[in-house]
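Final report, closing paragraph on structural work. Over the funding period we assembled a curated collection of sequence-structure pairs, and we close with a single example.
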Amino acid sequence: MGLRRIPPRAHNRSDQVELFMRLWDLPLDDAQMQHIGQRAPISQKRSVFGNMNNDGAPYPASSCLASRFHPDFLAVVEPGVRDFLVAIAVDHNLVTYTSCEGHDYRPDGRLPDERHVGVIPRNGEEGKRAIAVFEQVGRSINAAPASPAVEVALMLNRVHDGEAVYPTIDLYLSKQPNAGWDDYFADIELMTTQLVQALERHPPIA
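Its predicted structure, as stored:
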């Protein structure tokens, strides 16, 4: 049985995706990184719920696209999802375009966001390999999860940049349908550690 598919997000837009994907595979030496850090620093604002984005607002909100070689790359990633993102972006050499540590909006009368990392495949074959690995890793974790409140799930979506459309694959740590949100947020770190360790044991996707 495959992973549960999460319905696509309605708001999934970005700017300059093609340039971002070219920069993702363009390594920088120390001098270049220092120059870019000084001339083009990246910063994000943090919301009262912990979201890091351009406006410091809850979802939906716009965030910057940061190349993995930019010196501020990890500084603009929400702390709770950094290890998860590194396992995908660095260990598996995949282009990550979005991430979320999970946010509890219930005090504001809204449903929470779940922890996830999203990928834009460089091509169709890479996308197929990523889905296959995420399915394999996710099924093994779901068979013996560190928490009964959380499961690994997938969202297959598209990101829009003007007229251009790019397929995306988002790997989620999602609340089990019969679990409560308090249990989800209590156990999300356990499940993140289990998922990251499983991803690290798998050969690189790209």
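The chain has a mean pLDDT of 93. The chain has five helices and seven strands. We thank the funder for supporting this effort.
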